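Notes from the 1:1 (GR / supervisor)

We went over the backlog. Supervisor wanted to see one worked example end to end before approving the batch request, so GR pasted a single chain during the call. The sequence is below; no edits were made to it. Supervisor asked that the structure be written out right there so they could see what the output format looks like.
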Amino acid sequence: MAIKVWITLISIFLLCTAAAEAEGRKLLHTTNEFSVYSPINNDGICKTMVETQGYKCEEHTVTTNDGYILSLQRILVERSGKKADKAPVLLQHGLFCDAVVWLFNSPKESLGFILADNGFDVWLANGRGTKYSTRHTSLTPNEMGYWDWSWDELVSYDLPASVEYVFNLTGQKMHYAGHSQGTLVAFVALSQGKLLNMLRSAALLSPIAHLNMITSELTKVIAELFLANDVYWLGVREIDPNANGVTKFLDGICFISNLNCGDIVTLLTGPNCCINSSKVDFYLDQPTATKNFIHLSQMIRTGQIAKYDYDYEAQNMLHYGKEVPPTYDMTTIPKEFPLFISYGGKDYLSDVQDVKVLLNDLNNHDADKLVVLYKDEYAHLDFIGAFDAKQVVYDPMIVFYNSN
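Structure output shown during the call:
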């Protein structure tokens, strides 16, 4: 309890810093219309990350049913100049990331480029609130209402909007690839029988579903002490890992909890074996909603995959018609839907024991429609950034795509 009290005091102290930073962002958004990314600026991912490597790229936007304007990038032509002749593939990033994570290694090491060079029509999704998806039909990121969402909304709005856009534009069912939170939204959608008419298969890297056995000590402390809830009720609706207040907050938690936080990324994700240390800052550099972090914390504490719990029975009744949030059942994922699941032995977030529970949920899956690839030395970020991920994960994944 003493730890809880001290960390809460730190939270209150740092709220002033967070508020000041929020005011700075508000000034940015209100004084310069184009400070928020717009494709007409030509400063998007295509211009800065794809065309510089010799690939042709298109910028697209799609508006979700709840008003968020998301950016997508399309790599339709491989570096040799040959146009894609295989099905579309939609890539969905994880928490605190955007689509850049699929591109920032060399073309021979980055999944986005590797898929393009193998003839796939590559689409890169950027979730709401990330650098290239900050726009909304009526809200700006400095407003609390803009951040009123958790991964439930990513399942209900972002994922369908992106999938439907690609399907309608190409006229083809697509493969899907997700990492971390990008796997969670796919698992939940599939468990509800959604999007099956537009998807061919799904490759899910560092799968996030059950989180009860998570081994990241820092993440467990945040979840078990309800710290995201405290920050939320203090008025902070956005968690930006680059914000000075967040950095100090994590340092405070580490100090009081006696955790060695010399390497925050490793403490959160596990000892990644094979990533370039000079590029670590590219991984966890995008904001998310505080409400989203609360939702993930609920999963860690309860061991359940459920809708967001509003804590008050009356609020849950209002939203769900019942006093407790409905749960998602992974056993209802259609057994004939092709799945490729890859996980690592050193992953602190997609823990081996939690993945085993997930695989048990899929015990009745058609044997020829489920590929499971385990890499003992891989941690959470190796699946998107390892120098040998092509040979270890991506080549087998492409074989899986080609067979489905």
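Supervisor's comment: The longest helix spans residues 2-31.
Batch request approved.
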